[in-house]
Amino acid sequence: MQKRAKAFLLSLFLLSGFIFIGCGSGGSATPDANSTVDVNTTVDLRSELSQNTFYAVKDDIQSKSLYKVSFDTNLSSWDIQAYDNNYSTAIPGGVTADINVTADTLSDASGSLQLVSKEMNYLSLVSTANPLVKLKFFATSALAEAYYNLSLRDELKAKEFFVVQNNATSRSLYKIDFTDVLTQWDVTTYSTSYADTARLSSNYGTSIAVTDSNLTDSGGNIFRFQSREVDYLTLVDVNSSTLTLKFYSSESLALEYFNSFDLRKELRSKTFYAVSNNGVNKTLFKFVFTEDLSSWNIGIYAGDYLSEPTQSADAQQIAVTENILTDSSSSLKVVSKESDYINLVSIKDSSLTFRFYTSSELAQTYFKE
Questions:
Q1: How does strand 295-301 pair with strand 134-138?
Q2: pTM of the entire structure?
Q3: What is the Cα–Cα distance from 74 to 92, expressed in whole angstroms?
Q4: Quick one: which of 46, 146, 160, 358 is 20 to 30 A from 122 by CA?
Q5: Region 63-77 average pLDDT
Q6: What does residue 261 show for φ and ψ, rounded to 5 degrees?
Q7: Is 135 exposed, middle or buried (0-12, 13-18, 19+ CB in 10 A)?
């Protein structure tokens, strides 16, 4: 699928929920104008955006899109203009919409983007509802176009990567070496580290095909070049948005991500005693998760866990990613992992938080505070 930018309504620009699967985006090779260093400093999004104009590139599963975004002085609204392939061709129409900006979040009525980092050449924001939807704000059109036209062939050619595969249920470790002509790769699978004792299998000289935007393996699986961050490349299976590959040039960075917090690992086959808090009232819950994390059983309690629940529901369907739990009506995003509980917040209503305890006694102690 060719790269394209359309005059999307804001509800698509700030994409929330799950997105449809599409083919990869094409593009020509250009000089890399986007080498950056992660400064890892505290940044106030409000001061970065106020009365500024940015050239934005949106990455999602389907395509890359070009926008020009202008913010007013008090950050109460923004103007969005879409472009087709470069900034010389504007697509007719545009959007002006009301927004709300905090120190780290940009929101409108249909969704939110959270500031991830400030790099040398851009601000990086990610949809709070879907981490595969990313928006990069560049100060110049040249920098935005250079990122838009990144070539996967140039990124992979004759290089070695430490790769973390992330599917619907778990992460896996690989080391992958690419040839100069990108017609084959060597893939080694590891269990828990890149030590020789953790090596599980090796496949050398397996055929692949690589374009500027897609990688196709010998089994016919197609991975789209979704984005490039400071430390890694992300490729996404075009048939399943839950299957991603992160390509690191550093073994230590790959292992750091591999061993980082994973909500799926925390919840699988476990029972939690949860307390919701909207700032006014608290409610006691009991959640029982299945092994495959496809459903949960829910109980709501009046004041303690000794009596029968006042409400209950069995086998309610859910979806769980690394940091987001979604049911049929709402989504919860992980805020932190504390010593006694997991702290989550509603994506729709930031005043509504949940603490997931494994101990009913600890849950009730917090409930009564």
A1: unpaired
A2: 0.78
A3: 27
A4: 160
A5: 91
A6: -55, 135
A7: buried
